[in-house]
Amino acid sequence: MASTVRVSQTPPWVPVLKKQIDGHEKDQDYTAYALATLDKEGLPKVRYVIHRILTPASSILITTTDTRMAKPAHLAAHHTVEMAWWLSEPAIQFRITGQAYTIPSDESASDYDSKFGDVLSGLKAKGDEAEKGYWQKERKRLWTEAMSGHLRASFGRPPPGTSLSEVSDPSTWDESLPAESDDPETKKKIDNAYSHFALLAIRPTGFEQLELKATPNIRTQWTDKGEDWEERHVAP
Ligand SMILES: Cc1cc2nc3c(=O)[nH]c(=O)nc-3n(C[C@H](O)[C@H](O)[C@H](O)COP(=O)(O)O)c2cc1C
Questions:
Q1: Which residue has a Cα nearest atom 10 of ligand 1?
Q2: Global pTM value
């Protein structure tokens, strides 16, 4: 039997997700999920990414990527994604369907403003999250606070997926990069790496929780119906 949950602000799956992951922000057993996108031919491609934040006003899930990876190209063609998120300690699987967008980062691009407008309307961003400034600030904050030096350096390396025969010797690659520097040479490296760093934003349209510790198992689904979310309790 389906029931409708009226939402003034927060979708009903938000407390369900937060209950499991809050307080575990630094633990990959809680932050890593498999994200499936569709390539240009419409074929599924899946890989793990790290959950970074759930935005407070619009309940958008944020992860990060290198603009030169396959994900941003996939999302330019198809916004539909699905995620499988397994939390082994509580024995819970979240399966989330959504619409995903790469947040534009190249402010010098002539279509930067119009692209941003399309992304924010696709995300149905609310409050200050409907403003470019929120995302620019969050990108900088995550670059500084959430990326390790090793991860920051990875954004300055040759394009991911390029044959090793076509790139510089890996032993010459920087192992680590600071978030900021006054040294002109290091600053150039940081600017180059940061130009490849992007936020990937996912607006969930369907959310399923499967609880395996309970006997019998419990499977609950929430589906976005516009103003409301439909809640269904189904056989596992
Ligand atoms: C535990 C784990 C976490 C990862 N986190 C991220 C991430 O947050 N963002 C990312 O772009 N790639 C991440 N990766 C690497 C991706 O799985 C993948 O190899 C890379 O993004 C290239 O995928 P693509 O070319 O399909 O975009 C992670 C891999 C693992 C195993």
A1: 65
A2: 0.96
